[in-house]
Design goal:
By secondary structure, the protein is an alpha/beta fold. It has a single domain, classed as Rossmann fold. The protein has eight helices and seven strands. The chain has a seven-stranded parallel beta sheet with strand order 4-3-2-1-5-6-7, with helices on both faces. α3 links the parallel β2 and β3.
Protein backbone atom coordinates (compact mmCIF):
# COMPACT_ATOMS: atom_id res chain seq x y z
CA UNK A 1 0.00 0.00 0.00
CA UNK A 2 3.05 2.28 0.29
CA UNK A 3 2.89 5.14 -2.18
CA UNK A 4 -0.75 4.52 -3.03
CA UNK A 5 -3.17 7.42 -2.68
CA UNK A 6 -6.18 7.02 -0.46
CA UNK A 7 -9.49 7.42 -2.23
CA UNK A 8 -11.80 9.82 -0.33
CA UNK A 9 -14.88 8.11 1.04
CA UNK A 10 -18.32 9.61 0.36
CA UNK A 11 -18.53 10.56 4.05
CA UNK A 12 -15.17 12.37 3.95
CA UNK A 13 -16.23 14.23 0.79
CA UNK A 14 -19.53 15.22 2.41
CA UNK A 15 -17.72 16.54 5.50
CA UNK A 16 -15.34 18.54 3.32
CA UNK A 17 -18.27 20.11 1.47
CA UNK A 18 -19.98 20.97 4.74
CA UNK A 19 -16.79 22.57 6.03
CA UNK A 20 -16.51 24.74 2.93
CA UNK A 21 -20.16 25.72 3.10
CA UNK A 22 -19.74 26.72 6.75
CA UNK A 23 -16.69 28.82 5.88
CA UNK A 24 -18.53 30.48 3.00
CA UNK A 25 -21.44 31.35 5.29
CA UNK A 26 -19.18 32.87 7.94
CA UNK A 27 -17.31 34.80 5.26
CA UNK A 28 -20.53 36.75 4.62
CA UNK A 29 -20.36 38.07 8.19
CA UNK A 30 -16.71 39.04 7.68
CA UNK A 31 -17.70 41.01 4.58
CA UNK A 32 -20.55 42.72 6.46
CA UNK A 33 -18.16 43.68 9.25
CA UNK A 34 -15.72 45.11 6.71
CA UNK A 35 -18.42 47.31 5.20
CA UNK A 36 -19.71 48.48 8.59
CA UNK A 37 -16.27 49.33 9.99
CA UNK A 38 -15.18 51.20 6.85
CA UNK A 39 -18.45 53.16 6.62
CA UNK A 40 -18.24 54.29 10.24
CA UNK A 41 -14.61 55.38 9.91
CA UNK A 42 -14.94 57.15 6.57
CA UNK A 43 -18.29 58.92 6.94
CA UNK A 44 -16.73 62.09 8.49
CA UNK A 45 -14.22 62.69 5.66
CA UNK A 46 -16.56 64.38 3.12
CA UNK A 47 -16.00 66.12 0.78
CA UNK A 48 -13.34 63.81 -0.59
CA UNK A 49 -11.57 63.06 -3.86
CA UNK A 50 -10.35 59.58 -4.81
CA UNK A 51 -7.03 59.48 -6.68
CA UNK A 52 -5.87 56.41 -8.63
CA UNK A 53 -2.65 55.51 -10.40
CA UNK A 54 0.20 53.06 -10.70
CA UNK A 55 1.72 51.38 -7.66
CA UNK A 56 4.99 51.11 -9.62
CA UNK A 57 5.70 54.83 -10.09
CA UNK A 58 8.79 55.74 -8.08
CA UNK A 59 9.38 58.95 -6.10
CA UNK A 60 10.95 61.55 -8.36
CA UNK A 61 9.05 60.38 -11.43
CA UNK A 62 7.05 63.17 -13.11
CA UNK A 63 3.78 61.28 -12.46
CA UNK A 64 4.63 61.00 -8.76
CA UNK A 65 5.47 64.68 -8.44
CA UNK A 66 2.39 65.75 -10.43
CA UNK A 67 0.15 63.60 -8.22
CA UNK A 68 1.67 65.06 -5.08
CA UNK A 69 1.03 68.62 -6.31
CA UNK A 70 -2.57 67.85 -7.25
CA UNK A 71 -3.21 66.16 -3.93
CA UNK A 72 -1.70 69.01 -1.93
CA UNK A 73 -3.85 71.56 -3.73
CA UNK A 74 -6.97 69.45 -3.21
CA UNK A 75 -6.17 69.08 0.48
CA UNK A 76 -5.54 72.78 0.94
CA UNK A 77 -8.81 73.49 -0.88
CA UNK A 78 -10.72 71.45 1.72
CA UNK A 79 -10.94 67.98 0.17
CA UNK A 80 -9.93 64.82 1.97
CA UNK A 81 -7.84 62.76 -0.43
CA UNK A 82 -8.46 59.01 -0.75
CA UNK A 83 -5.91 56.68 -2.29
CA UNK A 84 -5.26 52.95 -2.27
CA UNK A 85 -2.78 53.44 0.57
CA UNK A 86 0.11 51.70 -1.20
CA UNK A 87 3.29 52.83 -2.98
CA UNK A 88 3.73 54.76 -6.20
CA UNK A 89 1.02 57.21 -7.21
CA UNK A 90 -1.01 56.12 -4.18
CA UNK A 91 1.83 57.22 -1.92
CA UNK A 92 2.18 60.53 -3.78
CA UNK A 93 -1.55 61.19 -3.33
CA UNK A 94 -1.39 60.47 0.38
CA UNK A 95 1.81 62.45 0.80
CA UNK A 96 0.42 65.59 -0.81
CA UNK A 97 -2.67 65.49 1.38
CA UNK A 98 -0.71 64.54 4.50
CA UNK A 99 1.13 67.85 4.40
CA UNK A 100 -2.02 69.78 3.44
CA UNK A 101 -4.97 71.01 5.47
CA UNK A 102 -7.35 68.07 5.01
CA UNK A 103 -7.12 64.35 5.90
CA UNK A 104 -5.07 61.86 3.92
CA UNK A 105 -6.99 58.57 3.65
CA UNK A 106 -5.54 55.21 2.62
CA UNK A 107 -7.78 52.28 1.68
CA UNK A 108 -5.24 49.49 1.86
CA UNK A 109 -5.72 46.00 0.42
CA UNK A 110 -4.12 42.75 1.57
CA UNK A 111 -2.17 41.37 -1.40
CA UNK A 112 0.48 38.65 -1.75
CA UNK A 113 2.83 41.14 -3.42
CA UNK A 114 3.30 44.79 -4.38
CA UNK A 115 1.02 46.37 -1.77
CA UNK A 116 2.39 47.81 1.45
CA UNK A 117 1.01 50.75 3.35
CA UNK A 118 2.72 54.10 2.85
CA UNK A 119 3.47 56.28 5.90
CA UNK A 120 1.43 59.32 4.81
CA UNK A 121 -2.03 58.32 6.06
CA UNK A 122 -4.06 60.20 8.65
CA UNK A 123 -6.80 57.57 8.30
CA UNK A 124 -5.87 54.04 7.30
CA UNK A 125 -8.39 51.29 6.57
CA UNK A 126 -7.34 47.82 5.43
CA UNK A 127 -9.55 45.54 3.32
CA UNK A 128 -9.43 41.85 2.51
CA UNK A 129 -11.93 42.11 -0.34
CA UNK A 130 -11.42 44.21 -3.45
CA UNK A 131 -15.14 44.76 -3.97
CA UNK A 132 -15.67 46.22 -0.48
CA UNK A 133 -12.74 48.57 -1.01
CA UNK A 134 -14.03 49.64 -4.43
CA UNK A 135 -17.40 50.57 -2.98
CA UNK A 136 -15.71 52.85 -0.45
CA UNK A 137 -13.73 54.64 -3.16
CA UNK A 138 -17.00 55.57 -4.85
CA UNK A 139 -19.27 55.98 -1.83
CA UNK A 140 -17.34 58.86 -0.28
CA UNK A 141 -15.88 60.54 -3.37
CA UNK A 142 -17.04 63.85 -4.80
CA UNK A 143 -14.66 63.34 -7.73
CA UNK A 144 -12.26 60.83 -9.28
CA UNK A 145 -8.78 61.87 -10.36
CA UNK A 146 -7.15 59.18 -12.49
CA UNK A 147 -3.40 59.29 -13.00
CA UNK A 148 -1.46 57.02 -15.37
CA UNK A 149 -1.58 53.41 -14.21
CA UNK A 150 -2.09 49.76 -15.07
CA UNK A 151 -4.84 47.18 -14.73
CA UNK A 152 -5.94 48.31 -11.26
CA UNK A 153 -6.23 51.92 -12.39
CA UNK A 154 -8.17 50.94 -15.51
CA UNK A 155 -10.42 48.77 -13.36
CA UNK A 156 -11.26 51.69 -11.08
CA UNK A 157 -11.81 54.00 -14.05
CA UNK A 158 -14.15 51.50 -15.73
CA UNK A 159 -16.02 50.96 -12.47
CA UNK A 160 -16.61 54.69 -12.00
CA UNK A 161 -17.71 55.19 -15.61
CA UNK A 162 -20.10 52.24 -15.43
CA UNK A 163 -21.70 53.36 -12.17
CA UNK A 164 -22.26 56.91 -13.43
CA UNK A 165 -23.40 55.77 -16.89
CA UNK A 166 -25.98 53.41 -15.39
CA UNK A 167 -27.07 55.94 -12.73
CA UNK A 168 -26.06 53.62 -9.91
CA UNK A 169 -24.24 56.56 -8.38
CA UNK A 170 -24.48 60.32 -8.78
CA UNK A 171 -22.64 62.13 -11.56
CA UNK A 172 -19.23 63.19 -10.33
CA UNK A 173 -16.21 64.65 -12.16
CA UNK A 174 -13.98 61.90 -13.56
CA UNK A 175 -10.70 63.57 -14.46
CA UNK A 176 -7.92 61.90 -16.45
CA UNK A 177 -4.56 63.56 -15.83
CA UNK A 178 -1.73 63.67 -18.40
CA UNK A 179 -3.47 63.62 -21.75
CA UNK A 180 -0.53 62.09 -23.61
CA UNK A 181 -0.90 58.89 -21.57
CA UNK A 182 -4.66 58.58 -22.12
CA UNK A 183 -4.81 59.66 -25.79
CA UNK A 184 -4.62 56.15 -27.25
CA UNK A 185 -7.36 54.83 -24.98
CA UNK A 186 -9.65 57.78 -25.72
CA UNK A 187 -9.03 57.41 -29.46
CA UNK A 188 -9.99 53.73 -29.19
CA UNK A 189 -13.16 54.64 -27.29
CA UNK A 190 -14.07 57.19 -29.95
CA UNK A 191 -13.03 55.34 -33.11
CA UNK A 192 -13.96 51.79 -32.15
CA UNK A 193 -16.25 51.55 -29.11
CA UNK A 194 -18.50 54.47 -30.09
CA UNK A 195 -18.23 53.71 -33.82
CA UNK A 196 -19.46 50.16 -33.26
CA UNK A 197 -22.31 51.33 -31.05
CA UNK A 198 -21.02 49.82 -27.81
CA UNK A 199 -21.45 53.16 -26.01
CA UNK A 200 -23.01 56.48 -26.98
CA UNK A 201 -20.84 59.38 -28.07
CA UNK A 202 -22.25 61.33 -25.10
CA UNK A 203 -20.75 58.76 -22.73
CA UNK A 204 -17.31 60.16 -23.53
CA UNK A 205 -18.44 63.37 -21.81
CA UNK A 206 -18.37 61.48 -18.49
CA UNK A 207 -14.58 62.03 -18.56
CA UNK A 208 -12.44 65.10 -18.98
CA UNK A 209 -8.70 65.39 -19.53
CA UNK A 210 -6.85 67.97 -17.44
CA UNK A 211 -3.10 68.32 -16.91
CA UNK A 212 -2.65 71.32 -14.64
CA UNK A 213 -3.14 70.78 -10.86
CA UNK A 214 -4.94 74.10 -10.38
CA UNK A 215 -7.30 73.30 -13.23
CA UNK A 216 -8.14 69.93 -11.61
CA UNK A 217 -9.27 71.70 -8.44
CA UNK A 218 -11.17 74.36 -10.38
CA UNK A 219 -13.01 71.73 -12.46
CA UNK A 220 -14.28 70.00 -9.32
CA UNK A 221 -15.47 73.25 -7.75
CA UNK A 222 -17.10 74.25 -11.04
CA UNK A 223 -19.07 70.99 -11.13
CA UNK A 224 -20.54 71.62 -7.68
CA UNK A 225 -20.88 75.41 -7.92
CA UNK A 226 -24.67 75.38 -8.28
CA UNK A 227 -25.56 72.36 -6.18
CA UNK A 228 -23.07 71.95 -3.30
CA UNK A 229 -21.12 68.85 -2.32
CA UNK A 230 -23.75 67.15 -0.18
CA UNK A 231 -25.68 64.41 -1.98
CA UNK A 232 -29.38 65.05 -2.38
CA UNK A 233 -31.90 62.78 -0.69
CA UNK A 234 -32.42 60.96 -3.99
CA UNK A 235 -28.66 60.53 -4.48
CA UNK A 236 -28.28 59.17 -0.96
CA UNK A 237 -30.96 56.61 -1.74
CA UNK A 238 -29.14 55.61 -4.93
CA UNK A 239 -25.83 55.24 -3.08
CA UNK A 240 -27.43 52.87 -0.58
CA UNK A 241 -27.87 50.46 -3.49
CA UNK A 242 -24.34 50.64 -4.89
Amino acid sequence: MNGMQKIPTPLATEMTEKTWLARESWRVFEIMAEFVEATERLSPIRPAVSIFGSARTLPGHPYYELTERISRQLSDAGFSVISGGGPGVMEAANKGAFFGRSPSVGLNIQLPHEQHGNPYQDISQTFRHFFARKVMFVKFASAYVVMPGGYGTLDELSEALTLVQTAKTRRIPIILVHGAFWRGLLDWFRNTVVAEGMIDAADLDLMQVIDDPRDVVDAIFSHYEKRGFEPSAQEREIQLNL
